[in-house]
């Protein structure tokens, strides 16, 4: 099991209970309900020990976001999450000034000056407005301040090039400069997990800084095991049938192939309608839990018989 950290490693993320091997980390992740294969456990272990960001790429629902959550839980580190979206900029990722509070502060200064018939010192007023108490730490700054922690930069493929360049700079330095305040540097680097659903290629420069992990959908045995871990009351036979059917669906060239989240939803839906087996009737009744496009559902319905027979 994880042992207390004995020796420091240059650049390593500092944790109180440090996994001693990929297997050890896999066991710790398992303890949180996250089932890692060998490649994943090795990549995460190395990211931790080398103090390098882990760049996780894969189809939606392959467990990228859940990995960051499981790492934070199993390592006992707080999770700081930055959800990327189109148009996200540095002020949403790093910090912002609390404008309403600054304004109130200014009004209060003005009121007190006018009550005491004194002149405001403009320079002093201005510098008092850029005090730390008016600083809103957004996730990246928060992670640098809170490190050791896990910083999840989720769905970085949704952000634009400029934002990527900004991230690269922060990740390289583990610090940010706030002109009015100075440099904020993390004492130990956060464990950074970046995820991408690969809606576009992320630049080489960003990848070069990171360790790379491609996440596949789990194989049949692992998906069955995941279903049973997430839904402890699910009978093994039903878990196997769902995993098998979902694997079949993934082979149908659908618009949106089901991820693990959909397998879990499907199995749960089947349980809720009291199905003991996945058959044509129960599959049809619960298909909306696993396929979310009309075209996909139509396509699957045509093949359902064959899928369930295999
Ligand atoms: N290896 C795994 N072990 C346990 N649960 C998993 C695993 N992979 C995926 N899941 C579950 O599948 C769901 C979808 O995973 P998520 O991390 O949201 O996918 P992604 O971020 O890749 O789109 C989550 O509920 C997660 O708990
Ligand atoms: Mg995700």
UniProtKB/TrEMBL annotation:
It comes from the Bacteria. SMART domains: AAA. GO terms for molecular function: ATP binding; ATP hydrolysis activity. Residues 1-23 are annotated as: Disordered. InterPro entries: AAA+_ATPase, ATPase_dyneun-rel_AAA, CbbQ/NirQ/NorQ/GpvN, P-loop_NTPase. This is MoxR-like ATPase. Residues 50-236 form the AAA+ ATPase domain. CDD domains: AAA. The lineage of its organism: Bacteria, Bacillati, Actinomycetota, Actinomycetes, Pseudonocardiales. Pfam families: AAA_5.
């Amino acid at each position: 099991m994880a042992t207390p950290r004995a020796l420091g490693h240059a650049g390593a993320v500092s944790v109180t209970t440090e996994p001693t091997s990929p297997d050890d980390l896999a066991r710790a992740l398992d303890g949180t309900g996250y089932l890692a294969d060998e490649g994943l456990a090795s990549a995460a272990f190395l990211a931790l020990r080398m103090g390098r960001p882990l760049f996780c790429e894969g189809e939606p629902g392959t467990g990228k976001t859940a990995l960051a959550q499981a790492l934070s839980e199993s390592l006992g580190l707080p999770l700081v999450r930055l959800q990327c979206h189109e148009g996200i900029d540095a002020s949403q990722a790093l910090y912002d000034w609390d404008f309403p509070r600054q304004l109130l502060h200014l009004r209060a200064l003005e009121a007190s000056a006018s009550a005491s018939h004194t002149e405001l010192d403009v320079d002093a007023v201005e510098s008092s407005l850029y005090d730390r108490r008016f600083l809103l730490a957004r996730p990246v700054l928060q992670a640098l301040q809170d490190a050791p922690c896990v910083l999840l930069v989720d769905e970085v493929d949704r952000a634009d090039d400029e934002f990527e360049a900004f991230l690269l700079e922060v990740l390289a330095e583990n610090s940010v400069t706030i002109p009015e305040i100075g440099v904020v540097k993390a004492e130990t680097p956060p464990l950074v997990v970046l995820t991408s659903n690969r809606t576009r290629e992320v630049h080489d420069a960003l990848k070069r800084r990171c360790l790379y992990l491609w996440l596949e959908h789990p194989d049949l045995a692992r998906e069955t095991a995941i279903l049973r871990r997430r839904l402890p009351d699910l009978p093994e036979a039903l878990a196997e049938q769902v995993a098998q059917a979902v694997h079949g669906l993934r082979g149908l060239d659908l618009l949106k192939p089901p991820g693990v989240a959909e397998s879990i939803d499907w199995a749960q839906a089947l349980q809720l309608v009291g199905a003991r087996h996945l058959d044509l009737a129960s599959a049809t009744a619960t298909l909306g839990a696993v396929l979310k496009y009309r075209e996909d559902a139509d396509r699957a319905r045509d093949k359902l018989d064959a899928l369930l027979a295999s």
